[in-house]
Amino acid sequence: MIDDDYPVGFKISLHRKDLEIALALARQSGAHFPVATLGAEFEDELISPGYGDDEDSSPARSIHQRSRLENREV
After folding, report:
1. Which residues of 58-73 are buried (b: 16+ CB within 10 A; e: fewer)?
2. Which end of the chain, N or C, is more open, meaning fewer C-beta atoms within 10 Å of its C-beta?
């Protein structure tokens, strides 16, 4: 993660698919999982520009990018 290198393990796009199933079940039961929802946002931010085949630990890239953006706004 320090080197911003994420070798392929379990693909983030597959994890996102599974997470969406869990979040849909949560919505149906009236449950709210804010941390899982945030994780889904991180994964969506990675899938959109083409990182969907990266290893599922790569949300660190999204967190890193958000940190850089927030630091610019300060």
Report:
1. bbebbeeeeeeeeeee
2. C
* Phi, psi (deg, nearest 5) at residue 55: -65, 150
pLDDT at 71 over 70: no
pTM attached to this predicted model: 0.70
Q: Residue 11 phi/psi, 5° resolution?
A: -65, 140
Structure tokens at 18: 């599974």
Classify 22 as helix, strand or coil.
Answer: helix
Angle between helices 34-47 and 59-73 (to 10 degrees): 90
The pLDDT tens digits for 25-42 are 999 999 999 999 998 998
